[in-house]
Structures are given as structure tokens and as C-alpha cells.
Design a protein that fits this description.
The complex is a heterotetramer, with two copies of chain A and two copies of chain B. Chain A folds into two domains: 12-219, Rossmann fold (3-Layer(aba) Sandwich); 232-354, 3-Layer(aba) Sandwich (Rossmann fold), CATH 3.40.50. In chain A, helix 3 (42-56) packs parallel to helix 9, helix 5 (96-108) runs parallel beside helix 6 (127-134) and helix 11 packs across helix 12. Chain A contains 14 helices and 14 strands. Chain A is of the alpha/beta class. Chain B is built from 13 helices and seven strands. In chain B, 43% of the residues lie in helices and 8% in strands. In chain B, the strands form two sheets. In chain B, strands 1-2-3-7-6 form a five-stranded parallel beta sheet, with helices on both faces. In chain B, helix 1 runs antiparallel to helix 10 (296-307), helix 1 (45-70) runs parallel beside helix 11 (312-334) and helix 6 (148-162) runs parallel beside helix 7 (181-193). Chain B is α/β, with parallel strands linked by helices. Chain B has two domains: 5-334, Rossmann fold (3-Layer(aba) Sandwich), CATH 3.40.50.970; 341-386, no CATH class. The radius of gyration of chain B is 24 Å and the shape is globular. The chains are: A alpha/beta, B alpha/beta. Bound molecules: thiamine diphosphate (TPP) (2 copies) and magnesium ion (2 copies). One thiamine diphosphate sits between chains C (105, 144-146, 174-177, 204, 206-208, 269, 273) and D (65, 94, 118, 122, 125).
């Protein structure tokens, strides 16, 4: 307006809620929530995390396809629309680029949108908004505009889904600088990591292993586990490090059991954070065992395991007794329901792969 | 060169779609006259009887598959119960050389066009992603990523036009899918290229749980046509006579070089979105009951019966055919198709890839091992036995 | 619950945009009366004088930057020469608390809203991707990926609405960009959510080399509005009075809860797409000459001069300001900003990442080495010297 | 129609031109073209390849943004619209998903569309069509519907492009099963590989290194070089294998020169085909030199180099004297024009990286 009337308004910037400092974790549980340990599924934990985040911070909003009265096709947003109303949790029109694009504008204004992509492959229409804006806005504006957006994506297979319902798309996001990509493998992490993701000032791709939604643990919510950017050693061992995340953590643990039966001491690391990668935790484990394998469902070629294998090797070459192995999906489109069992990594395949090493 | 359209005097002011849906048959099955027909006329009785027969068979098939799905025999099945008028009219309006671009919801359109139950069900029971020969039937695979197939239809229609072939491409779209960017791009490419394409939106008023009021703020989806300079028709989607008349008109228009048309059929999804959906969470039973009273088959049946076209004899013969179809459909599910997991590697590329052959060999080896030792597991006992 | 819109009697039949663009000032600079004003009235003389001043300054800036770009001082610059009426009207119609979502083409809109030349040029001369403080000016970064910013505008407007803040978001769009899926999704989300958004399409009749006739088959882009149930206006984009009146109306409508509006301003891109474009390949010089005769500044100047508002004194003072702006703009290019390559690592994430710090350290080391030995190269001589 | 009238038409399928057998390479040059060697740029070679393909096969069509009268922003389609007319080479509306989506329909009908994405980042709106359809159609239909589509994408930096004009997006495509991804580094390959890509029955992502468009060689067109799916040893050496592609091949050759000056014998392999990966050629080289490094512009994390490093290591672990190195872009968004020089790999950085190995 200066050229028009020479007055430069300076007020509106203040209307915008500045992003909150990240890093601080919640200390007090929501008053309304008892802390008694109960059997909780990943789905239930995610639902609780959304509920608590909505209750704690009026800037948190949840929208997407069917997340309102239906509660999402996986029921992760169950009852939230009824509890918080249409202005906090609502059904959007059916358009993923629109969902992510409008979330960007909301985040610019100080909201903290949590959006759901209904299935992995249905996030692809939003790829430009994610890659060219969500990932780059902070850098473009020298940190002046941060985008505290969480994009929740149920991913991977194992549920007998028809075509396009079982993609593992993590490699697309982890290769995109500016994104934080995390994935929980158990209910406690599901709760804690989603809370932390929502509290983060950076955009987070939050990958939910859909085949594990209904797997349960006894947890007392709210719970705070390790920071979401850190890997966690789930099981200690000395002979080999199995690296897994999301849906394959269970397989790694099964493989560890099978291995133990063969006298193999297997260390299992749940990566949790795919970007950033926790070089410290992983490096320490690999230097201890001198052997590592990474397990994921996505196709092998150019998959996330390639990065894991490459960086472990770069950083620990002279500690390695054998090449890092990749136990992954094949380099083919995800199969139809009846054939997915032949595609998905199994504990037996992990053991068979370990057998290929010269010990 | 650029188009100074505002300077030319022969700009055609577009005709808005009607506010009431175009209708030829009242809900009571009586012929409609006057403005609501928008000048369309009733198809002849042979055509109507053919449509009736196809709708009855389609419904029987759909009900049978839904039942099989409830028994857990299929991975999923999106029913088109209540949408038969849109589905069958769309197929009936096409000539053999034309192409159909359906969605997951449109199995009965495939059936009506001659795809066998076994071929249709292959994907829903999880054998392979698509189970029929697209080229044989001139039907594209049933699209899951919403609205993407509309662009394929425009491309195919454009290719046919470039080759001076007499081919029209018709695509079925859901109301929800019109919110996707691809729907817009398809409308726009079709109109700019004047591609012989017909867009039939089945507005069944829900996208899974999301009602149409949260999908669009427009009076009708047919209004979208205005923004692309193409004709748009808002039609009673439960009136198969009207749907057939309007779609046929659009197909003829496309065939004669008149370009694309957008048609919205207002209908209702009587069943859940798929077997894994729970519609009680988002809609009243009374609403469903309400729409039961506007059933597309009932309506035509009343009309044809009153006209004397649908005799008891014909009705019975159709019923017999429908039962035979249901039996054939059940039979399909009693056959267990031989699936070769190694075929997973065979169609990814036309050329062989050494790395893929390695992976194929790995699986072949694994399968052979399992076969030779079906109980094979890495158990302690087994290890001990081996040692 | 689902919307049985065809059953309700109070459906509003949409009003089609006019076929001739809305106009308040004739090309000869005389006030227009009658139908072509579509009921809009001439802004007051103070406003018009303000618009005039802003247009003159904007054009001087634009010309200066184009000249600097021709000298190779900038990486690129998309000129808005000839589009000043759209650009300045859009900015002038906004209140301070409103937000603007511009594209690469809209530098003069930024200038008019108070962004300093140095801040605008930072991105075009290659210092950093965006050079101004978005929040201070309530202006988003100039968007390059076409139509993406329209969704950001809708999102921001929705957030403001949810917070009950009095904020309108206006986005500028090119004619070509309306073909993108994101444009459609933005129109639809805005109308379904009744977001206080104003879409201003500058139809400059080209998308780089592609004329509007290959972009749309519709009568006007304003016709798109019908399909979203929002008002659409087709306006003479070289008539700043009309653009200002219509945009102000849309902003007021949005502010009062009336939802979004789509406005098409018909204008012309007088310059090449950017400095690296060669428009002789795709348009006639005569066409450009033609549009020279419809210049938006000339038109207003004639009107204001005839009305006695624009005295020689005022004209001279504006000319002086314009020259000062041009000088300031040249001065910007004479300063060499200090760029710290290490800053590349500082804004990617809010939290520190160890691996990124390693990469930063690598570059710091490399820079230090080059600094200490500016001629350092891996040559045989150097190697020998080191050994 | 069977349920309607019991007639099942069987004819229309025949109208569709069946995909031609792939693999056969052209033998005769176009009659109209002299074979005299001339100084030819990559841009010129690509233009000639398109012209010859259009002339040879009436099913080839070229469309996209500005590819008509303008000849594309890089002039790769220069004069083709005038020569072949609007029905063979034309400007489409401005929508990348629309361009790829309609190309799919055309390919289903027997055309061989060659489409241009104007810049790398502007292919992202087409990501769903590419990932969910282009890549999967053949597999979905058990080979009955092949999509002989070429998607040309000018990629990478080095031209001082403003934001979004310098992305290296190869990792997104190479991780997607069903796609063939190739990239030439010189005019002869540009011609030969584009001809082969157009002749392929499978969809090909054809990545054009935009900073190299104007680099020239003396070539006689038409030329047929190695099959597009094979890597080529450009320079033999014994101490280390440098792997490069597209824009970084030049850097590898420069590094080889610098290395030679230091007494280092460097073998340079131009990968050419990113998917499939030529394990045979690369493996042979690495087993000879026992050391390898991969150079690319894209960000390192999850970049194509990760796959290269991982698979070389897997397959040749006990031949390797040192970890495979990656000389790549940083894990940040591509910088603004004035800062890109600090981001892009250089021959000096390659040499510095080799210095980190214990020799
Ligand atoms: C791109 C994309 N996003 C989301 C989905 C998930 N999905 C499948 S069906 C559906 C609703 C579609 O509604 P509509 O278009 O009205 O068709 P209907 O199911 O009612 O026939 C959704 C959201 C999808 N298949 N594709
Ligand atoms: C998604 C996307 N595709 C392609 C481009 C390349 N591109 C930049 S400007 C332009 C033409 C835009 O035309 P229009 O929208 O009319 O705006 P104008 O330049 O005329 O102001 C194109 C194709 C882009 N920036 N973004
Ligand atoms: Mg629907
Ligand atoms: Mg334009």
C-alpha cells in the first residue's frame, strides 16, 4: 500500500500465532485422562494422541477425507468430530492436493493441521504440494514461515488390500530435504511420536503401519517414549543388528526369536525416525555386532534400505564383517491380495538372508 | 494467435443445466411431459425392455456378489445397488467400438458389456489387479485412484479422433471424485481438444461417508460444464429412460464431432461404500428408506407393465436368466484359480531384467523348498533334526 | 446428511458472467454507462489518483528491472508491463490485515504493497528463493509452481475464518495456471468452506507461448465460477477503475461472510514471458501494437486529466517519485549483497540435524581452504608444490 | 452389451494398433538425412531424434506445454510443429497430470506419445499418473496393455535457474517398479537413446541434463550407440571407478584428468540407464579397481547413489578395498542461482573425497 497511500501497516503480523518452540515434551497428562495401564492398540493410541493434542492446543485442527463423523476408514479419528466439533475436526472435499495445499495456508496462519491421506497411494496427488512447498517453505523464507503440519499416511501392506492400498512410499519422502519422516511400530510410540510430531514446528510425514493398527500393548496414556527422531534398541544382541521400522519391526523380532533358536544373538533396532536417520544409535549397534541387515516392505531398488546400507557402510566399513543385507519387497508393483504373502518379507527370509553371509 | 473472444459478436451464451433433473419417467412409472423432459423423448419399448432386463440381471449379480463378500469370499466389493439406471444406460448408449472407462463401483457396467463374472471378480477376490482383457471388451481396468481414468478416456478419444476412427470414450465418475484435480483437467482437455468423450457422473450423494453438501457448493455438478464450454445435463439418475436418452444424445454428439458432454445422474448408493464400511455412522436409515421408494427398476417395471411390454412370461424368463447368472457367479467362487506367484515377475516390463530374474529365481527356490517340506519352519526342533 | 438439492424449491439459479467485460472507463478514457458497468460505479477521484500513481510507479519499476535483466544483472524477470491495472487494483482493494498470494509475475503488486525493491529482487537476482518477510507484509512468497498458491490462500482464509479474524486472502492467477488441477481444487475448497478468498485471474492471453484458445474452450474463465456456486465476473483487465470496483466488491463480500469470488481480468502481456523468451515465435507484432492502444495507464490518465484531477503538478511529482524509485532500484543492483553459503544449511529444519551439520562443516572447510588459497586447484604443479 | 442384446462385438480390439515388438534397433537412416558428421548439441540431437521418430512412425505424437510453435523452452521440439502439423506436435493445456493422463489413453489406443515436462519440479503434479498408472498398467493387465510413453524431463541444475527449476528427481522414478529411467550425457547417446526409448513398449522416463543441452560433439546422425539399458565405460583406469550419469559425467571425466595428474588411474563409467542398473558392466569395473564412487547432483540422503553404493557393496563386498563413496548434492533444497556453485559436485570435491580413503 505504500505506493498508494504511504502507510505501511505493521499490525497484522502479530495476529498470527507464532510457531511454538519445539522440543519441549508434554509433562502433565490431560486432566481428564486416567493413567491406568490398559490394553491399547496403535489405532487407539493414535486416536488418543489426536484427542489430547486437540484438547491441549486450540490451534490443532484435523481434516481430510472421511475423518469426520465416520472417524476415518481406519477409525483413527473416531469420535473426534463429535467431541471437538466441525471447526476442529472435519471432512474435506475429496482432493489430496487440496488437503495439503490448504493445510499449508492454515499453518502459515498459525494453525497446526493434522491431515490424513486415506491410503499411501492416494497421497501421490499431493506430491507437488508436499515436495515443492511443505518441504521447502521454511528454507525459502529463511525460517520466517514454518509449517507445523503433520501428514498422516497409513502405509504398507499385509491387510489384503486391493491395488493402490498397500504402497510403501517412504523413500519418496525421505529423499526430500525439509521433511521429517517417522513411523511408530507400537502403541506407546504411536501416541508419543504423534504428540511430538504435532508439536514440531517442522512438517512431519507420519507413516502409520496399517497392518499393525490393531496390535495391542498394555500402556498407560499419556506416555512419553524416546524422542521421535531417535532409533531405539528393542532387543540386545551381539551377532547381528536387524534394522526395521513400522510393519517390519515385528518381523525383526520374530527373526530374532528364530535366530536365538539357532544360537544367533540378534540385536533389533527400531529405526522409528527415517529422516533424520539416527546414525549414533545404529552405528553403535553395528560396530558392536559388525553385521547388519535392514528389513522393509517397499521395493528394494532405490528403497529406504539402500540409504541405510550405504550410510552404515560408509561410516563403519572397517567394522563390517559382511555387506549390509536388504530383506525387502521385490522390484515389482505391490501384488494383489492373494499373492502379497509371497512379496512381504518374513522372518524366514531374514534368516535365509543371514545364511548367505560367510560367518 | 490469441482469442479476443470478447470482441467477437458471435459468442454463444451457454445454456445452464436445468434446476430440476431431466426426467422421462415419474417415480410412479408414468411418462413425464413438458419442461422436465428438456426435449428428450422416451426410448422405444425394445430398448426399454433391454434396459430392464440388463438392470434386473445386474442387480441379481450385484446382490450375489455382496452376499459372497459378506461371507468373506472376496477381499472387497463396492456395490452399485440402486445405481443400475446410470450404469446400464451408460453401457447401452455405447456402440461396440466405443470405450468405457469405469471405476471400482461399476462392475455391473462391465457385466452388461459382456465381461464374465469370473473376469470381473478376479480383482475383488484378490487374484490379480485386473482380470479381463481390456482390448477385447474396450473397457479399461476399473480405476481406483479417483478421477485418473477420466484423463485416460480423453486421451483415448483424442487418439481415435487423430486416427479418424469412429470411437467415443465414456467415463463413469463418482460425485466425490469430481473434487480431484484430474476431473477438472479431464473436462478441460476434452473441451479444448474437442475429444469425443462423455463424462457420466453418478452422483450417489456420498463419497464413502462424506455427503455431497461437503463436496460441492454448486447447484448441480452439471453446472461445471459451463466453465468448459461444453453442454451439461442434470438428469434423474434413477430414471433409466432419461439417462439413456441423454447419454445417447451425448454419444451421438461426440461421434459427429461435437465434442464432450458432462452428464450428472442424481442417484443414491443403497449399500455401504464397501463391505468394510459402516454407513450407520453417517446417514439415517430413513434416508435410505426414502430412496428405496425411488428405485430405478421398480419405476421402469411399472411403466413397462402398464404398457403391456413386460408380460409375465418375459418377466419370468428374465428372472430365470438372473438366477442362472447368480448360480454362475457362485460357481466362480467355488473354483479356486491356480495362481502362480512367479507370474508376479512376468509383466512388470516387456523386456527381461536380470535383477528381476534373480528375484524370480529366489522366490522359485523358496517355493520349491516349501513344497518339498511344507511344514518347514526354523524351529529349534527342526534345527536339531537337521544337524 | 445428504443434500437433496433438486427437491428444494429455493435453489438459486446462478447468474452467468457477462459476455462483454465489465468496464467503467472506455479505451478512450471516457466513463462508461449502462449494461457494461454491470452496476458497478466509478471509484472516487482520490482513489483513482492513488491507483494512477501506483501504476506509474509500478511501470517505472518494472521497466527498470527489465532493463537490468537485459543487461544480465538478474537471473530472470517476468514483467507485468501492461497488466498494471489488475496488479494494482488487487493490492489497492485489500485492507492491511488481508493477505496477498502472488505469482512470479506479480512483483509490482509486492512493490505496491510496500515490499522494498531490494527485497523483491533478491529472488530474481539469485540471492535466495524469497527475499522479504511474508508476515510483515502479509504477502506469501511469489509462487512458481502454478496454481499451488491458490490453495494456500484458501487455507489461510479458512484459518482466519476459524479464528474469527477479519482477514481476506486474495490470490493472483495466470490464465494458463487455471488449467492445473490445483486451481480447481482451490475454487472448490473455497466455495465448500465459504472461505473469504478472492481469486483474480489475470488473463494476459498467453501461458508463455500458448494462446488462451488452447487453454480453454469456455467463453470466459469467469464462467468457471458457476460450477462452484460462486459469483464470477469477467472484467476489462486494462480498466483499473472496473478492476478496483469489482475486486473491492468481492473483498467486501468475502469480509462479510459471503464466501469466495472468481474474477477474470482480460489483459495482455506486453513483454516477453521472461527475458529468456522469444515472443516473435508465437505472436504477431501487430497484436502487441493493437494492445498498446488499450494501455491501462493512458486510459486512466486521459480520464483524470479531463476531470482535472491530474494536474501537471501532480503528474510531475509522480514522475519525480518514479524516477527516484528507478534510481533506488538501480542502486540495489549496485550493492553486492553478502551471501553466506553456510546459511544454506540453517533454515532447512528448525531442529538441528547432526548429518546436516557434518555437511555444513564440510562446506565450511572447503570455503576456508579456498579462502586461504584462492588459486587452489588440483593441478600437477600444485601437487608437486605440496609434495 | 450381452445382457442387453446378447451380441458381443469382437472387432474393435483389432482397431487398436498392437504395440510393436521392442528391442529391434533402426538400421537404415532416414532417407532425407545426410550422414555427414557435424557438430551437434544434445539439444540438437534430441530434436533430430524426435524428428526422425515422427517421420518413421505415424503413431508417434509429441505434446506438452509450449512444445508447438515455440519449440519448447529449451527448443528441443524446435520446428517440429511446423514440419509435422498440429495433429502430430501440439501445445496442450497447462496441466502435467492431464498431459501424462491423456498420454496414457493415447498409448492404450496404439499411439506412442512423447510428452515433455517443462522442468523437473513441474512433473510432480503428474506423480500419481506416473506412479499409479504409467508404471503399473502393463503389470495390472498381465501385459495386455503396454504403455509406450516417453516422458521427457529436463533435470538437474547448473543453469542458474530460480527455485523449482533445478531439481534432480531421478530417485523418485527409479524406486518405482515398472518404469525404465535413462539419461544421456552426450549428443550421440541423446539421439540413440531417445530413439530407443520411443521404440520401447515400456514407458520410459527420459531425463535430460539441462546444463548439458548445448554441449557439442561431432556426430553423424542417425547414430546408434550402446543399448539404452547398458552402462558404458568411457575411460579405462585401474585405481578407482567413478560412476556418473547425465550432468555429472563431465565432472567424472574432469576428475579423471585431475586424478591422472596426481598419478591416479581413474575408470569412468557413464551409467546411462538408471533403471535397470547395469550390474554387469559396473561390477566388472569395480572388481577390477576395487574402489568406486558415485557422483550425482541430487541430495545424498536416499538419493540414487544410495542404491548404487548398496548394490555394489552387496555384490562385490570382498572385492572392495574401501567403502563406495557418494559425491552428491547436500541434503538441502536446491539453492538459489548465486549459491548453486556451492551445492553442485565438482571434480575437486571428487578428488577430495577419494583422498578420504585409506589407500
Ligand atoms: C486419489 C484417491 N483418493 C482417495 C481414494 C479413497 N477412496 C476410494 S472411494 C472414495 C470415495 C469416492 O466417492 P465417489 O467419487 O462419490 O464414488 P462412489 O464411491 O460414491 O461411487 C475414496 C475417498 C481413492 N481411491 N483415490
Ligand atoms: C506446475 C508448473 N508447470 C509448469 C510451469 C512452467 N511455467 C512457468 S510460467 C508458465 C506459463 C504460465 O502462464 P499463465 O498462468 O498464463 O501466467 P503468466 O505467465 O501469463 O502470467 C509455465 C508453463 C510451472 N511454473 N509450474
Ligand atoms: Mg459417490
Ligand atoms: Mg498468462
Amino acid at each position: 500500500m505504500t505506493l498508494l497511500d504511504e502507510t505501511t501497516p505493521k499490525t497484522a503480523g502479530d495476529m498470527v500465532t507464532a510457531g511454538r518452540a519445539s522440543g519441549a515434551l508434554p509433562t502433565a497428562p490431560s486432566a481428564s485422562r486416567p493413567a491406568a495401564p490398559t490394553s491399547t492398540s496403535i489405532a487407539g493410541a493414535l486416536n488418543a494422541a489426536l484427542r489430547d493434542a486437540l484438547a491441549e492446543d486450540p490451534n490443532v485442527v484435523v481434516f481430510g477425507e472421511d475423518v469426520g463423523p465416520l472417524g476415518g476408514v481406519f477409525r483413527i479419528t473416531d469420535a473426534l468430530n463429535a467431541e471437538f466439533g466441525e471447526s476442529r475436526v472435519w471432512d474435506s472435499p475429496l482432493a489430496e492436493s487440496g488437503i495439503v495445499g490448504t493445510a499449508i495456508g492454515m499453518a502459515m496462519y498459525g494453525l497446526r493441521p493434522v491431515v490424513e491421506m486415506q491410503f499411501d497411494a492416494f497421497a501421490y496427488p499431493a506430491f507437488e504440494q508436499i515436495t515443492s512447498h511443505v518441504a521447502k517453505m521454511r528454507n525459502r523464507t529463511k525460517g520466517r514461515v514454518t509449517l507445523p503440519i503433520v501428514i498422516r499416511i497409513p502405509y504398507a501392506g499385509g491387510i489384503g488390500g486391493v491395488e493402490h492400498h498397500s504402497d510403501s512410499s517412504e523413500a519418496y519422502y525421505t529423499h526430500t530435504p525439509g521433511l521429517t519422516v517417522v513411523t511408530p511400530s507400537n502403541p506407546a510410540d504411536a501416541y508419543s511420536m504423534l504428540r511430538e510430531a504435532i508439536r514440531s514446528d517442522d512438517p512431519v510425514i507420519f507413516l502409520e503401519p496399517k497392518s499393525r493398527y490393531w496390535s495391542k500393548d498394555v500402556v498407560a496414556l499419556p506416555v512419553q517414549t524416546a524422542p521421535m527422531t531417535r532409533a531405539v534398541v528393542l532387543r540386545e544382541g551381539t551377532d547381528v543388528t536387524l534394522l526395521a521400522y513400522g510393519p517390519t519391526v515385528k518381523i525383526a523380532l520374530q527373526a530374532a526369536d528364530l535366530g536365538a533358536a539357532e544360537g544367533l544373538s540378534v540385536e533389533v533396532v527400531d529405526l522409528r525416525s527415517l529422516s533424520p536417520f539416527d546414525d549414533e544409535t545404529v552405528g553403535a549397534s553395528v560396530r558392536k555386532t559388525s553385521r547388519a541387515a535392514i528389513i522393509h516392505e517397499a521395493a528394494q531398488f532405490g528403497g529406504y534400505g539402500a540409504e541405510v546400507a550405504a550410510r552404515i557402510t560408509e561410516r563403519n566399513f572397517f567394522h563390517l564383517a559382511a555387506p549390509v543385507l536388504r530383506i525387502t519387497g521385490f522390484d515389482i508393483p505391490f501384488p494383489s491380495p492373494k499373492l502379497e504373502e509371497h512379496y512381504l518379507p518374513t522372518a524366514e527370509r531374514v534368516l535365509a538372508a543371514l545364511d548367505t553371509w560367510e560367518w | 494467435m490469441s482469442q479476443h473472444y470478447f470482441m467477437s459478436d458471435d459468442v454463444v451464451v451457454p445454456t445452464l443445466p436445468t434446476t430440476k433433473p431431466i426426467r422421462l419417467l415419474s417415480e410412479a412409472g408414468r411418462p413425464v411431459t413438458g419442461a422436465q423432459t428438456a426435449g428428450f423423448s422416451m426410448p422405444d419399448s425394445d430398448t426399454l425392455l433391454g434396459l430392464y432386463r440388463a438392470m434386473v440381471l445386474a442387480r441379481r449379480f450385484d446382490a450375489q456378489v455382496t452376499a459372497l463378500t459378506r461371507q468373506g469370499r472376496l477381499a472387497t466389493y463396492p456395490s452399485a445397488l440402486g445405481q443400475e439406471a446410470c450404469e446400464i444406460a451408460a453401457v447401452a448408449a455405447l456402440s461396440p467400438q466405443d470405450w468405457l472407462f469405469p471405476t471400482y463401483r461399476d462392475s455391473i457396467a462391465l457385466l452388461t458389456r459382456g465381461v464374465q463374472p469370473a473376469e470381473i471378480l478376479a480383482s475383488f477376490r484378490g487374484d490379480w489387479h485386473s482380470g479381463f482383457d481390456q482390448r477385447e471388451h474396450r473397457i479399461a481396468s476399473q480405476a481406483t485412484p479417483l478421477a485418473t481414468q477420466a484423463l485416460h478416456a480423453v486421451g483415448l478419444a483424442t487418439a481415435a479422433k487423430l486416427k479418424h476412427d469412429d470411437v467415443v470414450a465414456l467415463t463413469l465418475l463418482g460425485d466425490g471424485s469430481t473434487s480431484e484435480g484430474d476431473a477438472h483437467e479431464a473436462f478441460n482437455f476434452a473441451s479444448v481438444w474437442q475429444a469425443p468423450t462423455v463424462f457420466v457422473i453418478q452422483n450417489n450423494q456420498y463419497a464413502i461417508s462424506v455427503p455431497f453438501s461437503k463436496q460441492s457448493h454448486a447447484r448441480t455438478l452439471a453446472d461445471r460444464a459451463i466453465g468448459y464450454g461444453m453442454p451439461g445435463y442434470f438428469v434423474d439418475g434413477n430414471d433409466v429412460a432419461a439417462m439413456y436418452a441423454v447419454i445417447s444424445h451425448a454419444v451421438a454428439r461426440a461421434r459427429s464431432g461435437g465434442g464432450p458432454t458432462l452428464i450428472e445422474g442424481l442417484t443414491y448408493r443403497m449399500e455401504a461404500h464397501t463391505n468394510s464400511d459402516d454407513p450407520t455412522r453417517y446417514r439415517e436409515k430413513s434416508e435410505v428408506a426414502d430412496w428405496l421408494g425411488r428405485d430405478p427398476i421398480d419405476r421402469l417395471e411399472k411403466y413397462l407393465s402398464a404398457a403391456g411390454t413386460l408380460t409375465d412370461e418375459v418377466r419370468e424368463s428374465i428372472a430365470t436368466d438372473a438366477e442362472a447368472l447368480a448360480t454362475a457367479t457362485r460357481d466362480v467362487m467355488n473354483e479356486t484359480p491356480e495362481l502362480d506367484p512367479l507370474e508376479l515377475f512376468d509383466h512388470v516390463y516387456s523386456a527381461e531384467r536380470p535383477a528381476l530374474l534373480e528375484q524370480r529365481a529366489f522366490l522359485a527356490h523358496e517355493l520349491a523348498e516349501t513344497e518339498s517340506d511344507p511344514a518347514a519352519e526354523h524351529t529349534e526342533a527342526e534345527m536339531a533334526a537337521r544337524a
